[in-house]
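F.,

This is the one I mentioned.
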């Protein structure tokens, strides 16, 4: 479970506050959309709760553990073991094939050999079992993003964060990517939190968080709406 308490984020000097004291909770196994107009704070919120950026103030808890109390070494280990990340651009290494790219997070911890079969399984799940040895330049944009999804899952993360994962894809590939992401949550062990501007993809979520000017104006879990805050 993720819990944010009075989460604030400011930039520049004098400070410009982007997030204004947000409070919310994300249950395990949730498929969560974060929406809002450009500049509403969507990506900033995602980065703060995913440890890629530190909030200016407030607290973020994962399963009751407050991130601000972790040492940098513990936080790095937590990020590697418990989190996966998908971005609008796939960030695949151009000199590595699909299988090698998927195994990169495991290689960092010396576990790439034991994870090889899992990597092949993940590439099969995303429909690329016939393209294990293809370099990124030999794949379409949708295929490259699917390799990135497989890579994000190689360490079996409990939390998967995606920032506009369909932003560079056509509608057909975008729908395929979103269906893959939603399927990840069905075992109840992984939560997927994704930023999107597409209303159809936002509607796929079972938990919707909508921002306006850095404030939550909607926090809805399958029809159960909590007051804006």
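My design for it:
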């Amino acid at each position: 479970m993720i819990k944010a308490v009075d989460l604030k984020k400011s930039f520049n000097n004098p400070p410009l506050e982007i997030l204004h004291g947000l409070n919310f909770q994300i249950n395990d196994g949730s498929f969560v959309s974060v929406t809002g107009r450009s500049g509403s704070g969507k990506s900033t919120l995602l980065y703060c709760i995913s440890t890629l950026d530190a909030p200016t103030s407030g607290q973020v808890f994962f399963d009751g553990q407050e991130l601000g109390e972790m040492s940098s070494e513990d936080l790095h280990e937590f990020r590697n073991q418990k989190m996966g990340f998908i971005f609008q651009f796939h960030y695949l290494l151009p000199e590595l094939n699909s299988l090698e790219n998927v195994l990169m997070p495991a290689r960092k911890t010396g576990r790439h050999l034991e994870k090889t079969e899992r990597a092949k399984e993940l590439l099969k799940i995303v429909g690329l079992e016939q393209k294990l040895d293809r370099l990124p330049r030999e794949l379409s944009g949708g295929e490259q993003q699917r390799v990135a999804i497989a890579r994000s899952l190689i360490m079996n993360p409990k939390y998967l964060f995606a920032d506009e994962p369909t932003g560079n894809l056509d509608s057909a590939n975008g729908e395929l990517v979103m269906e893959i992401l939603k399927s990840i949550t069905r075992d109840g062990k992984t939560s997927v939190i994704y930023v999107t501007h597409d209303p159809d993809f936002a509607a796929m979520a079972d938990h919707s968080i909508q921002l306006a000017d850095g404030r939550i104006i909607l926090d809805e879990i399958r029809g159960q709406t909590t007051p804006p805050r």
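Residues 171-184 form the longest helix (14 residues).

Talk soon.
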